[in-house]
Amino acid sequence: MDDFLRKEYINLINDESIDADLYDKYDVKRGLRNNNGTGVLVGLTRVAEVSGYEVENNVKKPKQGNLYYRGLDVREVANLAKNDFGYENTCFLLLFGHYPNKEESVKFKEILSNEYDLPDGFLENIILKNPSKSLMNHISRCILSLYSFDDNPDDISGYELIRKGISLIAKMPVIVSYSLQAKTHYLDHDSLHIHYPKKEYSFAENLLYLSRNDGKFTELEAKTLDMCLIVHADHGGGNNSAFVGTVVSSTLTDIYSMLAASLASLKGPRHGGANMAVLDMMKNVINDIGLDATDEEIVNIINKILDKNYNDNSGLIYGIGHAIYTLSDPRAELLREKAEKLSATKNPKKFEFYHRFEKLAIKTLQERKGMSCCCNVDFYSGLIYEMLDIPRDLFIPIFAAARLVGWISHDIENLLYSNKIVRPATKYVGKKFKD
């Protein structure tokens, strides 16, 4: 069978390939990108805005980066949390359009904590009996399975999507953590550790409590993770997973199916998981030249990367550069600050090395390619997760747990105001039709 299928596949490639020039000939926007690198405008939103450049005469001009949640800069959102946990308030902001006052915050956190628990039997019958080597696939299955525990799962009215969405957001710490425990126990043959969520804990605290075998964590660790959740909560309606969600939900399918589609998108290595590529690259660099390397040694390594003679030979410096942000990524700035504070109790020399590498990589790219660039959120998020002893298996699931509120907010907005099934067009360039 394999030989037959392989032969037919080779014939397909030889006979049905599409010439790259045809995309330009018919003005096809590959990846929904314009020729100047900007995204094709496909919708309107009041949920979030990503701003990293200005366009003058069809040319991108660099600027300091901004990420706005409902009109509030993400830096201000982080500041509003003060010394408390801010992710729950960020969820409220994205869902309801304004930052909660004290009374609203207390009530919303109470509603979330009352939804922490899974339905009776869900842990035993859905999670533990069906472990998967891919936690993202396992989480998607869990989300889809919750459809069966909803008395009216196909109700997609605005209020119902809010209610269902809040319940799903609240359950992500247990779904993510129990999915890890199922894999660790049944596939990796390690001990099984099950903790039950604590209503008095925040979203970030429960993630650490549930995912750690001993359930212990420090306040600094929890608040560092809370900041990671805040900066990952949304990134506009044009990113792949958000757009996939609105495409799927435009068919008027249920919220569980919509979220499963967004989760599938985030699983892809071109979307989620970039921080793991950063960690792998930096591990190779540190192993080869050490944390005490000179700036000259670091620059030599950076040049090797750009020359495709180092790491994975891709020519990419992972964690440096972004499709939208040019001079700065506000998410990276917030996480750099948190990483520095956390490193003081973990590994200060490694943070210092990362910071030096970041500055030298940006300088080298500017000198070699004349491009304005900055480090992105993935450069420091992976380092933070590593310092928090979070397993690599949880890197993308934590991203997903944070982003669920963004997907839901865009879904509700799209159904309320656009409410058209997404149906673009393609140009046929195959064999001539036979009459």
The domain count comes to 2
Proportion of residues in β-strands: 5-15%
Total strands: 3
Strand line-up in the sheet with most strands:
1-2-3
- Are there runs of 5+ residues with pLDDT below 50, and where? none
Topology as H/E string? HHEEEHHHHHHHHHHHHHHHH
* Architecture (CATH level 2) name of the largest domain: Orthogonal Bundle
CATH class of the largest domain: Mainly Alpha
Helix percent reads 55-70%
CATH superfamily of the largest domain, please?
Citrate Synthase, domain 1
Q: Distance N terminus to C terminus?
A: 35 Å
* CATH topology title of the largest domain: Citrate Synthase, domain 1
Structural commentary:
It is built from 18 helices and three strands. The chain is mainly α and 435 residues long. The chain has two domains: 68-269 and 394-418, Citrate Synthase, domain 1, CATH 1.10.580; 274-387, Cytochrome P450-Terp, domain 2 (Cytochrome p450-Terp, domain 2, Orthogonal Bundle). The chain has a three-stranded antiparallel sheet with strand order 1-2-3. A hairpin with a 2-residue loop joins strand 1 and strand 2 (59-69). Helix 15 packs antiparallel against helix 16. The longest helix is centred in the middle third of the chain and has 30 residues, at 158-187. It is globular, with a radius of gyration of 23 Å. The model has no long low-confidence stretch (mean pLDDT 95).
